[in-house]
Amino acid sequence: MAYADQQMSGNRIAAFIVVAILHIILGYALVTGLAYDVVKKAVQRVTTVDIKEEVKKEELPPPKKLDLPPPPPAIAPPPKMTITAPVQTITTVTEAPPPPPVIVPPPPSAPPPPRFSPTKATPRGNPGSWANSNDYPSRALREEREGVTRFRVTVGADGRITGCSVTGSSGHPDLDEATCSLVSRRGRFNPAKDGEGQPTTDSWSSAVRWQIPKD
């Protein structure tokens, strides 16, 4: 009995020791977990406070106010205007319009009739005496050259010849030259007159036949 009691007492002691160890382990675990939570919360609180304080210390100064010019006065918008476009009427013409009348200008008024009848220049005396056989150029006479020279003279307001031109040659320059020279030197005219009866210039035409006289 004594041996059995001792054995049972040893078992109980061992059981108590195991239970005590388990309680110690559980208590340590609980204490360790609670301490971890407390430390974690303390760290968070300290960190949060420190960060907030640092953030507050690093805040930027407020921006300076800029002196801006006052805004321009408000301009009222122009009143609305309603523009009505004129309505165009298109007229369709089926027939062509008649042509416009032709305006014929009146005929120009006729000039008043002259106070006097104009007259032509007329030779004084016999024009046949202005050139005769005695005036025959000697060389043409020796060479027996003949011909008819036609001429036109310009008569001035005084009745004298102011110019002569050959209008039809005799074929011999010396006979043509002799014709204008003799007529211009010997010819005299009654001057022409205009519608007012005043002397004026005129022209006169004729011819000289150069013919060698027969003995």
Explain what you see.
With 215 residues, the protein is an alpha+beta fold. 35% of the residues lie in helices and 16% in strands. Strands 3-2-7 form a three-stranded antiparallel beta sheet, covered by helices on one side. It has a two-stranded antiparallel ribbon with strand order 1-4. The N and C termini lie far apart (231 Å). Residues 46-56 have low confidence and may be disordered.
Question: Number of helix segments?
Answer: 3
Give the total of beta strands: 7
- Oligomerization state: single chain
Q: Order of strands across the biggest sheet?
A: 3-2-7
Helix content: 25-40%
Shape: rod-shaped
Q: Mind describing the biggest β-sheet?
A: 3 strands, antiparallel
Uncertain residue ranges: 46-56
Rg on CA atoms, Å? 77 Å
Mean pLDDT: 77
- Listing every helix as H and every strand as E from the N terminus to the C terminus, the arrangement reads HEHEEHEEEE
What amount of the residues lies in strands?
15-25%
